[in-house]
Amino acid sequence: MANHSVWHFAYASNMDRAQVVQRAGEPREERLGRLENYGLNFDKISRGGTGTGNLVPAEGKAVWGVLYRLTEQQMRALDRFEGVPDHYRRVEVRVVDEQGNQVPAQVYLARRVRKGLKPDRLYLQKIIQGAEQHKLPDDYVQQLKKIAPA
């Protein structure tokens, strides 16, 4: 069972490949993905009081990110960094990949949220860096760059 792998959809700082490798090791595969009918929000409070990434249902919107194929062992390593089960929960969603295929993927959703939070400047830079690194669509990268940090 250790060789069983799943897709993980990274939509915030885990889009930065170096961060994922540091936390969980080399992904088996990676590709771009788009999660339909969700929006990116920063309503999960961090230790420093700023907002960290979370997905919220949003009809007609889409969140771009990176699909990483990881083993369950690698996902458990990411779970520890993300604070599962206290801070985030891992759920399965269907992400559209670059070829238009529906891909079942594991994603992190915040357990507790607070309105009115903004992301830390360095955290937001890490998200933008990951988006640029993976060549997400320019209009999406520009949307990320317009987000006001705390």
Major sheet: order of its strands?
Answer: 1-3-2-4-5
The overall pLDDT, averaged over residues, is 95
How many distinct folded domains?
1
| Low-pLDDT residue spans | none
CATH class: Alpha Beta
- Please identify the structural class as seen in this structure: alpha+beta
What is the correct CATH architecture?
Roll
Say which CATH homologous superfamily is assigned.
Gamma-glutamyl cyclotransferase-like
Q: Given the C-alpha coordinates, what overall shape results?
A: globular
Q: Tally the helices: what do you get? A: 4
| Subunit organisation of the chains | single chain
Termini separation comes to 43 Å
Topology:
Elements: E1 5-10, H1 17-24, E2 29-45, E3 51-71, H2 72-82, E4 88-97, E5 102-110, H3 121-133, H4 138-145
Parallel strand pairs: 1-5
Antiparallel strand pairs: 1-3, 2-3, 2-4, 4-5
Helix pairs in contact: 3-4
Structure description:
The protein has 150 residues and is an alpha+beta fold. The protein has one domain (5-145): Hypothetical upf0131 protein ytfp (Roll). Helix content is 27%, strand content 42%. It has helices spanning 17-24, 72-82, 121-133, 138-145; strands at residues 5-10, 29-45, 51-71, 88-97, 102-110. The longest helix is centred in the C-terminal third of the chain and has 13 residues, at 121-133. 32% of the residues are buried.
